[in-house]
Amino acid sequence: MRRIAFFVEGQTEQIFLNRLVREVLGTDNTNVILKQYRGGANVPKREINITRSKAIDPRYEVLISDCGSDNRVKSEMMDQTRSLRANGYEMLVGLRDLYPLSLDELPRLEKGLRFFPKTYEKDSKHLDVIVAIREIETWFIAEYTHFEKMDKRLTNQFIHRHLGFNPSTINPEILEHPAKTLDDIYRLVGKTYIKRRWQVQRIVKKLDVDYMEHEVTRHSRSLNRLIRILDDFKNPDKRK
Questions:
Q1: pLDDT tens per residue, range 128-182
Q2: Do the beta carbons of residue 212 and residue 23 sit within 8 Å?
Q3: Is 161 exposed, middle or buried (0-12, 13-18, 19+ CB in 10 A)?
Q4: What is the pTM of this model?
């Protein structure tokens, strides 16, 4: 069984990745392990939640760890590199948001996240960190077809009339705080988006992953990198 591990900053990223890996790798072929860590730095680290799903014909195992904050993603990945590599994990991938940093700070952030000390030299080619611009909700807005699935009133024209932009034509990476923009959109029809688990699950369930793979990735470098990692993991011969 081939194995890959992801380290994300929160439950939104974990819920989305859980859906994405099943779509790309195949639900019947993929065992998924979800972990949640809290603490670290000034307080003891705790593993407070873990769930496992078993596939019918398992070919892949995917670990998705919710690290609890953006600044814990890289450190948690480094803490677990040796043990996971020893247990057959081919890649360890971090995923975090750029927000609240600005686009100007992206190059510096990416450079820092992709630097690993010399003691990790042997494993460095198996480590990667992706920064979602500006938040993972940027990808949700880019997959604008889901809005009408959430509420038939949320047409592109309706949103444009009330908020001044058309989701089908705007580049959502210019939005400073996409999660707030999502909330603004849903509030037009009496709903909210405040990142509660059930809200995120409902939205992620409505997303058209095929559209995200083939259309959103044309404009989103970060989502394109994430899906390419999964594609390369699924089809290693393509890299040769």
A1: 999 999 999 999 999 999 999 999 999 999 999 999 999 999 999 999 999 999 9
A2: no
A3: exposed
A4: 0.94
